[in-house]
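To: structure desk
From: M.T.
Subject: fold request, one chain
Message: Could you run this one when you get a chance? Sequence is below, nothing fancy, just the single chain.
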Amino acid sequence: QVQLVESGGGLVQPGGSLRLSCAASGFTFSNYALSWYRQAPGKERELGAVINTFGDMTYSADSVKGRFTASRDNSKQTIYLQMNSLGPEETAVYYCYGRDFWGEGTQVTVST
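Reply: Done. Structure tokens follow.
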């Protein structure tokens, strides 16, 4: 069955960086665009970035433009989200979405 497993979250200081990964299985990975979402406490889940089958980031939210970069490695069936210059307001659970499935998310906490 389809599985999306995120990893790479954790605690980071303001201004720091993290790279998230999402490993996919159960479908022909290279045929699908995938997305990164995040959900902060008490807020709705929001779309952060979309990466197409060719590895191009075709969408990024205004709030992350210039700081977040999505990429993919089709040989590893994995997508990535490089996040730089993180702020406390970006504390959230980050989710991978694709093929109509969600991963379980990985917690990112930005704090001193």
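Reply (cont.): The mean pLDDT is 96. Let me know if you need anything else for the meeting.
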